[in-house]
Amino acid sequence: MTEKLASSGTASLARQLAQELMAEPASVAPVLRVVRGSAAAPCVMPPAPCTVHIGRSEAATWRLDDASVSREQCIIERNEQGCFISDASRRGTQVGGVVITDRVGPLVSGQTISFGTVVLVYEEAASSSQAAALAAGSATVVPQHKAASVAPRTPIWWWLSLVLTLAALAWVLLS
After folding, report:
1. What is the dihedral of CA 109, 61, 139, 64, to 10 degrees?
2. Which in 45, 65, 71, 152 has the greatest CB count within 10 A?
3. Residue 68 and residue 59: Cα distance in Å, rounded?
């Protein structure tokens, strides 16, 4: 009796595993890979909706340490329709070899994004390959909370000028 229960449990577990393996991936997450230029790890996009700021700035969601990249180079927005890119620099961003001036998308797997000396490839990767890349430690996963919004940092010179202005105003009022 116990052998019959054990074998039926094993059979149902085997059936369930086979169905999971043969099924389409539940979620597909875009990955940006550096083909030329910066030595950054691939960027795995968080679930939609999200916004990823790419640039050299400390405030960038995905930071590329390359002198040819602007502090805020481009912005990739992910929603239910796909990923859309817009240029945020004066240096320009190209998608598929064409300079973009407006929001472009949705991006297609295999499409190239280039700026400065950096060339990226946009890929749709199944969650299983993401897991393999993450297990190997070779991918940067953009945290969802950071990707939601990146507030621009106020430069230190602005704060210093504010303090000096307030000090001068206080001196005039107290004189």
Report:
1. 90
2. 45
3. 17
Angle, CA 153 vertex, CA 147 and CA 158 arms, to 5° = 170
The DSSP code for 104 is B
Residue 76 CB: number of other CB atoms within 10 A?
A: 26
Q: What is the dihedral of CA 71, 58, 137, 130, to 10 degrees?
A: -60
| Nearest partner of 74 among 41, 59, 52, 97, judged by Cα | 52
State how far the Cα of 68 lies from the Cα of 37, in Å rounded to an integer.
9
> pTM for this one?
0.59
Q: How far is CA 50 from the centre of its chain?
A: 8
Residue 59 confidence (pLDDT): 87
